[in-house]
Design a protein that fits this description.
69% of the residues lie in helices and 4% in strands. It is mostly helical. It is rod-shaped. This is RING-type domain-containing protein.
Amino acid sequence: MRAGCVICGDLFIATTDVSAAPCGHTFHSACIIQWIERSKSCPQCRRKATDKSLVKLFFDTGGLDTSQLDPDILQHQIDNLKFQVKLKEQEIKTLEDNSSKLTKQNKSLREEYKSVESQVHVKETTILALKTQLQFMDRITKEAQKAKEEAKSLRDQLRVLQNVESIVSGTSEDVEEMLSSYSCNPDSTRSLATFCSILKKVYYNKQTGTFRMMYNLWNETMLA
């Protein structure tokens, strides 16, 4: 008679640990213990069973010639080993597939990293170019401001010279009108002082020119 475990489907052999439930049904000890952890009942009759109620069975193998085993048992063991090999092969294939996926993912990540690194380099180059351009624009702005200030200074000087010309060659009404424009100007005192200094120089130059002209006429008269 061949007996086996209904949980795993394997036959009992002399070297297998077998345990019996309180109802009398027998199973591999490891199988029934795992079963009871999930369900406190016999897998066959569903009567109550616990790990403490299990009875471990011992088979008397005295006089048994282990060199002549049952062919059915051997075939079952062979089938079981083949099944284990098949499971391992499936596990290896799964691991190989996962390895292939990880390799492709790693390659994709490397390419993405290179792309991001290239983008960062381009952005850094752009930022450097913008900084250089900003410095150039700042220098141009300062030069433009300086030129603007110089132009204002030249316009002020031109206006002063035009006013001096009006004082020298204009009528008294023109002079009064020009001077009245400085009455509300905070810099009127400085402007008037400038006019006085220039007029003194003009007057001195005219006086010197008149004196030289009279001296030359006197010399010509005396030598005639």
